[in-house]
Amino acid sequence: MPVGEGKFKLYAKLNPPLEAGLWRIRANQKFSAQTPEASLDASALKVDEENIHLRIRSPRYILPPDQILSTYPPANSFGSYGSRLPQVVIKRRTLPWERRLDGAPANTPWLALVLIAEGEARLETSVDVANCVTAGVELDGLKEVAKGNCLAIRKSIIDKVFPTKNDVDLLAHAREVDIHDTELMMGDDDGFLAVVISNRLPVPGKDEDGNDAPVKYLACLVNLEGQYDVLLDRSPDPVPSFVTPFMVKSTVHQSMASYDDHQVMGTALAPRAAGINA
Predict the structure, then answer these.
(1) Number of structural domains found in the chain
(2) What is the pLDDT of residue 144?
(3) 30 belongs to a structural domain
(4) Per DSSP, what are the bridge partners of residue 25?
(5) Residue 195 lies in a domain
(6) Which of the ends of the chain has fewer CB neighbours closer than 10 A, N or C?
């Protein structure tokens, strides 16, 4: 059913028929024949088994520029974007689900969009792909490019700003839009898009006087392969806050008020200067 004009459909995920990697297709046939004079079984009509090897490709270290249809906020822009989560729209509808994450539930996205504030990490470009992964992590399969980009970041910052394992599956979805709507299509050709959303808002910082101060952010689409276990299982519990009530008792002594009290109690004395009658 086509999408109506100005509308779109959301899908939790669009899994590819085959994941990226090496596959083998094995084909075999068995024949038999029957005639009035005789019958032939499979051994007499033997057909050799056919094995076909194929590779399903999926960009791993560098995402081709033609696959990025749009980003929010726009690249190299300046403005107030703190009310909406950053996102990247990808032309290839199945890309976030084309690779498997070890230790993660089936069909968990292998891509995450992380938002890094200036000073939190270091972006390294044109690095040998062998050095684009954490020391001790080995990704199997052929490397489709010689150079890639990577993010050097401390574990404490990962715990602070990266999505948790509970978040990753919620931060990617597929979208079907009207192919006649040029604004929603954004240059796509079949109306299906993949969207990866960040878990962090680009909010401003604070200066010494407590006023809003601009912060420079970098949005990075990162590969979680081999590093899924580094993520926190879930967001930490909020730090409890304690409210201690302070009772301030203010007593005002006036000579006449004190005198009236003593009148009620039958112990009235002549009023003195401000203070308590004794």
Answers:
(1) 3
(2) 85
(3) yes
(4) 52
(5) yes
(6) N
The answer on 49 and 147 residing in a single domain is no
- Structural domain of residue 44, as residue ranges? 21-55
The pLDDT of residue 203 is 93
- Alpha carbon separation from 176 to 2, 51, 93, 197, 269 (Å, rounded): 9, 37, 9, 16, 91
Sign of CA dihedral 166, 159, 14, 132: negative
Decide which of 55, 76, 100 is a domain's last residue. 55
CA neighbor of 4 nearest in space, from 180, 167, 225: 180
Q: How far apart are CA 262 and CA 273, in angstroms?
A: 15
Tell me the three state secondary structure of residue 2: coil
Residues 111 and 131 in one domain: yes
Residue-by-residue DSSP string for 28-70? -----EE-SS-EE-TTTT----EEEEEEE----S---GGGEEE
Quote the CA–CA distance of 112 and 164 in Å, as a whole number: 10
Please state whether beta strands 21-27 and 33-34 pair in parallel, antiparallel, or not at all (unpaired).
unpaired
Q: What's the whole-number average pLDDT of the chain?
A: 83
The residues facing 217 across adjacent strands are 117
Contact 75, 93 (CB under 8 A): no
DSSP state of 200: S
- Position 274 pLDDT exceeds 70: no
- Do 193 and 11 touch, CB atoms closer than 8 A? no
Structure tokens at 21: 């990697």
What length is written for the chain? Answer: 278
Structure tokens at 172: 């990617």
Same domain, 181 and 155: yes
Distance CA 228, CA 153 (A): 15
Q: Decide which of 206 and 251 is more confident.
A: 206
SS3 assignment, position 230:
helix
Say if 178 falls within a structural domain: yes
Whether 26 and 97 share a structural domain = no
Locate 234 and state its tokens: 């879930």
Q: What is the number of other CB atoms lying within 10 angstroms of the CB of residue 35?
A: 7
| Domain shared by 215 and 136, yes or no | yes
